[in-house]
Design brief:
Layout: H1 16-19, H2 29-45, H3 51-67, H4 78-90, H5 103-139, E1 144-149, E2 152-158, H6 159-184, E3 186-187, H7 203-209, E4 214-215, H8 219-224, H9 227-256, E5 259-260, H10 279-302, H11 312-340, E6 342-343, H12 345-352, H13 359-368, H14 373-386, H15 392-402, H16 413-420, H17 422-428, H18 437-450
Parallel strand pairs: 3-4
Antiparallel strand pairs: 1-2, 5-6
Helix pairs in contact: 2-3, 2-5, 2-7, 3-4, 5-6, 5-9, 5-11, 5-18, 6-9, 6-18, 9-10, 9-11, 10-11, 13-14, 13-16, 14-15
The chain binds arginine.
The site of arginine (ARG) has 10 residues, from helix 5 and helix 11.
Subcellular location: Cytoplasm
GO molecular function: argininosuccinate lyase activity
Keywords: Amino-acid biosynthesis, Arginine biosynthesis, Cytoplasm, Lyase
Length: 451
């Protein structure tokens, strides 16, 4: 008969809804079907389940897949519900599907299977964002802009150098996602509840069928471990943190008139008709909060859990999905907003030298002529103190005071004027990784190769 035999004991009673993860498990519905199929193939190959029964189970799984998650019978989770649905279709023999496994190794396998796809999606999105940053950077190797530390004018740089700084950070975020992928891509299946099984299972085979790189051998580790989920969530939070800095910068740049965001990435006010607001970037910035909350939720849930399986793990999973959902589209939006923004070259050039931000260059010039750098620093600091916008004259009087001799004894006037010019200042800083257009071209080529 097709009747499902399930004991009523432990069916949940008033806590049934509280116990169930069926709704949230929609995310691993496809994964569970894949895991079921791989497991049944292996059981048939090992002679644990006969081929007719395996065939009937496959047919049922196909029907269940076509009907979709929404059509599943009630169950404590997607694993139980799919098993029930199989038995409803093929009768008691459907219950052979759960031979030599537990929901503990099953769910761990499903999470890893789904997370792999999500991580690949994340990597693809970050790579796309990096391509967009590099493309925009290529157009702006000569676009001089103010550079800041402590949000104070610091030294002039270029838009390309600035954008490349984020592309490089995203490159490391990519590496972290790939690292997390490597440790996610290992199979716990066949570990059963935690203590293995007397059946002659072939764990390598199910791992291979599901595309995992290797098997998590210790069966207690296999069903208990969620460090892969924490690692992936943390990698996503790290990425979100990178994006939040970029978003914050561009919000400020929009405020300063350095960039105009495209209308596509802006919003307006319901009352102030003139407003064009950088809402998309503010939401990117806030997504880092979601991702950090996910890391914190996950760490708090996992901390101090005893071996082996505990139901707390059911609540851990969602934190990982929260991070995935918060960060992937934020990456896409951040990249789109930056790639479509208009950089206002005149405003950037006009402000690039503000706040005497070429001062370091003058000190460097003096140091190159033999003045100890600290003395040069002192002289230029004095000039800066005496005037908001020092020129050769202020520097000359500071030289008299600090060096006790004329500036021209050390450097000629033209060199000083050049050092004070933002574009020349940028061009002179051609050390490895520096903002000089020549140095940035090399960095762009290397970044493109890396990509
Ligand atoms: N739904 C559970 C989870 O997500 C798997 C069920 C294991 N249940 C159990 N009582 N051992 O972790």
């Amino acid at each position: 008969s097709g009747d499902v035999v399930r004991r009523d004991r432990f069916s949940g009673g008033p806590a049934r809804g509280f116990l169930s993860s069926l709704a949230a498990d929609e995310r691993i519905f496809e994964a569970d079907l894949a895991v079921d199929r791989a497991h049944v193939v292996m059981l048939a190959e090992q002679g644990i389940v006969d081929e007719d029964d395996a065939g009937a189970i496959f047919d049922a799984l196909d029907e269940i897949e076509d009907a979709g998650h929404g059509d599943l019978p009630d169950g404590e989770d997607v694993h139980a519900a799919i098993e029930t649905a199989v038995i409803q279709r093929v009768g008691q023999k459907g219950g052979r599907m759960h031979t030599a496994r537990s929901r503990n190794d099953e769910v761990a396998t499903c999470i890893r299977y789904r997370l792999r796809a999500d991580l690949l999606d994340a990597v693809e999105t970050v790579v796309g964002a990096r391509e967009q940053l590099l493309e925009t950077a290529r157009e702006h190797t000569e676009t001089v802009m103010p550079g800041f530390t402590h949000l104070q004018y610091a030294q002039p740089t270029t838009v390309a150098h600035y954008l490349l700084s984020y592309e490089r950070a995203l490159a490391r975020d990519t590496e972290r996602l790939v690292d997390a992928y490597d440790r996610t891509n290992r199979s716990p299946l066949g570990g059963a509840a935690f203590a293995g099984t007397p059946f002659d299972v072939d764990r390598e085979r199910t791992a291979e069928l599901l595309g995992f790189d290797s098997v998590l051998v210790n069966s207690m580790d296999a069903s208990s471990a969620r460090d892969f989920l924490l690692e992936a969530t943390t990698a996503l939070a790290n990425l979100a943190t990178t994006l939040s800095g970029l978003a914050e910068d561009v919000v400020i740049f929009a405020n300063d008139g350095y960039v105009d965001l495209s209308d596509d990435y802006s919003s307006t006010s319901s009352i102030m008709p003139q407003k064009k607001n950088p809402d998309t970037l503010e939401l990117v910035r806030s997504r880092a909060g979601d991702a950090h909350a996910a890391v914190s939720g996950l760490l708090t849930t996992l901390k101090g859990l005893p071996r082996a399986y505990n139901r707390d793990l059911q609540r851990a999973t969602g934190h990982g999905w929260e991070a995935v959902d918060a960060v992937i589209d934020a990456t896409e939006v951040a990249a789109g907003a930056v790639a479509t923004a208009e950089w206002n070259e005149d405003v950037l050039a006009a402000e690039a030298g503000d706040g005497f931000s070429t001062a370091t260059g003058v000190a460097d010039l003096l140091a190159m002529s033999g003045v100890p750098f600290r003395t040069a620093h002192e002289m230029v600091a004095l000039a800066a103190e005496q005037s908001a916008d020092p020129d050769y004259e202020t520097l000359e009087s500071a030289a008299q005071e600090v060096l006790g001799e004329s500036l021209s004894a050390h450097v000629d006037r033209d060199a000083v004027e050049a050092a004070l010019d933002p574009a020349e200042s940028v061009a002179s800083r051609d050390s490895a990784g520096g903002p000089a257009p020549t140095a940035v071209e090399g960095q762009l080529d290397a970044a493109e190769d890396d990509l």
